[in-house]
């Protein structure tokens, strides 16, 4: 595409270059890597988005009940860029924050390096099956005033400039952290979709960026941002009231359904978000899973309702003084006790 902003080009190149270097190195060592025989320990990591932290604590506590000594996931917080190569090399045994198909790029070496790498990584079970949404939102006031319902309308430069806050003539799309899969996908959208010439992604700490989104909306200023569920933003920025979803064209190679029925805050039903509806899954090192059948069986059966995740995320967001690890662990323990009968069934299945 033409008129691609230099900032976008820098952002676009960063993640794949890192992955190419790391995964190419892994290709040389994976044949000799792997986890040891079952020694009763699990080394867990967790994602660096806090909307997945309670779930990591739930799994860690369940593995503890199963009799394993589990590392504290909070001590191994990673972005996907750092986690998946470390998982493949055996540094970690698992995490429970995989988003698929968004994270397919980390499993399929050919898409990253140009060659096929047999990475010993395996998604297991469905914490949330086909319930995790992603897409683009704007403030409702601007949507109503200008009749904006689709990202394609930003192909009109005059419409896109409404969301330009740094004066370069391009709409500022509040996006994802460096190293997140969604950052790469947004860059692909900017490069290949009809609205991309007039939009640039603003990357940084997502929670801080969305705090700025809330301030802009409160001040009556137009704002364009990436959003996902489950996430605390969905609780404090109510679709259909403060914000609306925008439809978007779909990349030719997008896998999975991108249409969502009955989506509050979207002008169309079904609403085509342009992003595949995702499933949240545990992901483990294959050698570790093969040596630990009980862990595999547990990961296969655990599910956590989307509404429970959203409620805890909203609780974190409402905490004025921040939210501690002890509070997250307490939320996980409370959830387990509230679902004790179901949990005991999972543990029985895992024990075989």
Per-chain topology:
Layout: H1 6-29, E1 41-42, E2 46-47, H2 53-65, E3 69-70, E4 77-78, H3 80-89, E5 94-100, H4 104-107, H5 109-113, E6 121-139, H6 140-146, H7 157-160, E7 171-174, H8 181-192, E8 199-202, H9 206-218, E9 224-229, H10 233-236, E10 243-246, E11 259-260, E12 271-272, E13 278-285, H11 286-291, H12 293-301, H13 306-318, H14 325-338, H15 340-351
Parallel strand pairs: 1-3, 2-4, 7-8, 7-9
Antiparallel strand pairs: 5-13, 6-9, 6-10, 6-13, 11-12
What does this entry look like structurally?
With 352 residues, the chain is of the alpha/beta class. The chain folds into two domains: 187 residues, 3-Layer(aba) Sandwich (D-Maltodextrin-Binding Protein, domain 2); 146 residues, D-Maltodextrin-Binding Protein, domain 2 (3-Layer(aba) Sandwich), CATH 3.40.190. It contains 15 helices and 13 strands. The strands form four sheets. Strands 5, 6, 7, 8, 9, 10 and 13 form a seven-stranded mixed beta sheet that branches. The chain has a two-stranded parallel ribbon with strand order 1-3. A two-stranded parallel ribbon has the order 2-4. Helix 8 links the parallel strand 7 and strand 8. Helix 1 packs parallel to helix 3 and helix 12 packs antiparallel against helix 15. The longest helix has 24 residues. The N and C termini lie far apart (55 Å).
Provide a count of the helices.
Answer: 15
Strand content: 15-25%
- The CATH class of the largest domain is identified as Alpha Beta
* CATH homologous superfamily descriptor of the largest domain: Periplasmic binding protein-like II
N-end to C-end Cα span:
55 Å
The figure for the number of domains is 2
Q: Could you name the ranges where pLDDT drops below 50 across 5 or more consecutive residues?
A: 1-37, 110-114
Give the CA-based shape.
globular
Largest sheet: 7 strands, mixed
What is the count of β-strands? 13
Give the helix level as a range of percent: 40-55%
State the CATH topology of the largest domain. D-Maltodextrin-Binding Protein, domain 2
Q: What class do helices, strands and sheet pairing give? A: alpha/beta
CATH architecture of the largest domain: 3-Layer(aba) Sandwich
Calculate Rg over CA atoms: 21 Å
């Amino acid at each position: 595409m033409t008129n691609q902003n230099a900032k976008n080009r820098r952002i676009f190149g960063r993640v794949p270059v890192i992955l190419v270097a790391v995964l190419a190195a892994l290709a040389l060592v994976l044949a000799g890597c792997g986890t040891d025989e079952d020694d009763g320990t699990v080394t867990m990591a967790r994602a660096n988005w806090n909307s997945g932290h309670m779930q990591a604590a739930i799994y860690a506590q369940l593995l503890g009940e199963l009799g394993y000594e589990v590392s504290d996931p909070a001590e191994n917080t990673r972005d996907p860029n750092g986690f998946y190569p470390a998982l493949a090399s055996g540094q970690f045994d698992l995490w429970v924050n995989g988003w698929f198909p968004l994270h397919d790029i980390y499993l399929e070496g050919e898409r990253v390096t140009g060659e096929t790498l047999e990475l010993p990584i395996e998604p297991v079970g469905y914490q949330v099956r086909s319930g995790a949404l992603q897409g683009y939102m704007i403030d409702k006031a601007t949507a109503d005033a200008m009749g904006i319902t689709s990202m394609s309308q930003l192909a009109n430069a005059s419409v896109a400039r409404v969301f330009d806050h740094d004066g370069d003539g391009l709409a500022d799309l509040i996006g994802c952290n460096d190293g997140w899969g969604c950052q790469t996908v947004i860059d692909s959208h900017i490069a290949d979709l009809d609205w991309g010439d007039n939009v640039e992604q603003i990357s940084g700490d997502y929670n801080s960026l969305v705090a700025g989104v809330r301030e802009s909306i409160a001040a009556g200023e137009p704002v364009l941002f990436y959003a996902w569920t489950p996430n605390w933003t969905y609780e404090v920025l109510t679709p259909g009231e403060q914000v609306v979803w925008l439809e978007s064209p779909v990349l030719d190679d997008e896998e999975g359904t991108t249409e969502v029925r009955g989506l509050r805050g979207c002008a169309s039903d079904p609403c085509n978000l342009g992003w595949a509806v995702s499933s949240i899954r545990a992901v483990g090192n294959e050698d570790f899973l093969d040596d630990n059948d009980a862990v595999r069986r547990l990961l296969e059966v655990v599910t956590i309702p989307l509404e429970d995740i959203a409620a805890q995320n909203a609780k974190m967001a409402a905490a004025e003084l921040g939210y501690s690890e002890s509070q997250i662990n307490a939320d996980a323990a409370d959830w387990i006790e509230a679902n004790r009968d179901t949990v005991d069934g999972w543990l029985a299945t895992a024990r075989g």
